[in-house]
Each structure stands twice: as C-alpha cells, then as structure tokens.
Specification:
Length: about 260
C-alpha cells in the first residue's frame, strides 16, 4: 500500500531522511521507532502529502503522489486517518462537534444521522458521556480517545497513522490507548504508530522499523528487535529492563494483537 523509494528530505540545512526505502502492505501493524529528530513524524507527513520529499518517490497503492498538487492528493489522503500527537481538537467545539466536523464537511448525512453516528463512535472509544464537554475539560486520556473518535469519523480509512499516541499519558491511560489502537485495526485495516515508547510499540505492532540518522537501521519483528545486538538499539530498548512481571505479561512475544 505504501512504498518509499529512496526518499530524502531536509529541513533547511538539516538532513532528516536519507534515501529511505521501505514498503508497508495493507493490514500491516507497524511501529516506527527512533530518537528525536530521526524523521519519524516526517514520514507520516510525507505519506499524507503534507510535505514533499526533496528526492525519491512515494507510492500509495501504486500511484506516485510526490508530483501531485493539493487537489489531486485528496483521494490518496482519504485512505488514511491521522491522530496527531496532541490530539489537535478544535478548542472552541464540544467533543460532539469535534467528531461531527468531518461528517458535516464530507458527507450528506442529516443532523439526526450525524448525532447517531457520533454517539456510536464515542461509545466505541468509551467517551460517550463526555460528548457535551469542551476539550479543556477532558483528561489527557479522554482527549486522546476523542482524537481517535474523530479519526474514525473522518472517512473509512484503509490505515490509521498515529503520531506518539501515548506520549504524556500515565501507564493506565497509555495501556487503554494501546488497546483501542489494536481494537480499531479490524476488517483488514492496518496502522503505523510513530513512537519512542518501546513498551507501547511492543503492545500493538507486529513489525518494527528503527530509524537512525535518517536511514532505516532495522526492519523486523518484536522478537528480532528484542534480540538485536546493535548497541544503539540495546540502549533504546533499555527501558524494558525496568519492567515488572505484570508489565511484561501484557507484551505479546511477537508484538502482536493480544493486548
């Protein structure tokens, strides 16, 4: 579904991605790991066409999107739903209106149909009682759940894109968001999770890409990641040595879906 072919990108003089190549098929559950500034979020922005690579090609379902203008990108973008790191809710709209926004913009549903759909989506992510609240009244975990609900309402995506979905959350709320990410990946839908939290990545993903200095340094399963000998990867996953037995018990051996 997604193919990066020798993609390079720079922010001014700072090179972020360097001839990066990989493919992600439909239905795959992928975590992109790496340090700050290694280009993880940049990859998501390039997939959506929000920024264009300096060189190389990006193909979505075999179609090269790197030369398309804004009008031509809409079809490709509708194959994805993006959940931004901070949720990016509209501060001036209630939870209900935030989720209903895309339904009003891109569908011909009646107000009664929108109300019913919004309630159903909010129920799916467990925040229907908060539908009249403003974003400032939500806890961090609820805020992230509403962001997930809005992503569900936007379109019928083939793949979800998550940018640091558990950053800033306490362990219980982070675990709840991980469960939702897995639960929403049904009927062949896949996802890409960008994160620096190895524990959460192992709870949801089955394939792991590790970026280092803008290049693809590792591509493999959770077990392969855990057994990697490279000192940089060992340092990155060192947080796992501090896990309790209870925390280890919720991490699938293959980084699968048994959250």
């Amino acid at each position: 579904m997604i193919q990066f072919d020798r993609v390079s990108f720079s922010y001014g003089p700072k090179s972020v991605l360097k001839e990066l190549s990989f493919s992600i098929g439909p239905g795959e559950r992928v975590a992109i790991l790496g340090g700050s500034g290694d280009g993880k979020t940049t990859i998501l922005k390039i997939i959506l066409g929000l920024i264009k690579p300096d060189s190389g090609r990006v193909l979505i379902d075999g179609e090269d999107i790197t030369t398309r203008d804004e009008d031509d990108l809409r079809e490709a973008r509708m194959k994805f739903s993006m959940v931004f790191q901070e949720g990016a809710l509209f501060d001036s709209l209630t939870v209900k209106e935030n989720v209903a926004f895309c339904l009003r913009e891109y569908t011909h549903l009646s107000e009664e149909e929108i109300e019913e759909k919004v309630r159903g989506i909010l129920s799916t992510v467990g925040v229907e009682p908060a539908m009249r609240l403003m974003p400032e009244e939500l806890s961090g975990g609820m805020h992230r759940r509403v962001a997930l609900a809005r992503a569900l309402a936007a379109f019928d995506p083939k793949m979800f894109l998550y940018d640091e979905p558990t950053t800033g959350l306490d362990p219980i709320n982070a675990d709840n968001i991980c469960r939702l990410i897995v639960d929403l990946a049904h009927n062949g839908k896949g996802f890409i999770v960008v994160t620096h939290k190895v524990i959460d990545a192992l709870k949801v993903a089955r394939r792991f890409l590790f970026l280092k200095n803008g290049t693809l340094f590792f591509d493999g399963s959770g077990d392969e990641l855990m057994s990697a000998a490279d000192p940089g990867i060992r340092l990155f996953i060192s947080e796992l040595s501090c896990l309790t037995d209870t925390q280890r018990a919720v991490i699938p051996s293959q980084g699968g879906s048994d959250v």
